[in-house]
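BUG: 3D viewer hangs when loading the predicted structure for this chain

Environment: internal workstation, default settings.
Expected: structure renders.
Actual: progress bar stalls at 90%.

Input used:
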Amino acid sequence: MASAPSRREKFPESYAIFDRIVDEYRDRPGISLGRMFASEGLSVRGKVFAFVGFTGKLFAKLPEQRVGELIEAGDADPAIMRDKPMREWVTLAPARPDTWDRVVAEAYAFVDSITPAG
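Structure tokens produced before the viewer hung:
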């Protein structure tokens, strides 16, 4: 019996964008590639700030006010987990790769600022 396709196989366009972003962050202090909800995610000092979810969308952690601004502007969608909106997370479709770099940079800056140095 064949195994189910991996997320990378199911969403190659998403991972092509995400992998390029990972390459930009990989060598920064405190950055690692870890797991978030069974997905690969970028983290700073152990706190995830961006990952590709099970639908192929980018998830990014931002201040609640910024989440609202991005959603209102039509640049992002609310992140819904188990039928509950996540106040500090947005999702971005791979159809808008131009927004991924900017939003990941904002997510990194936000999580870096709220995560104590170890």
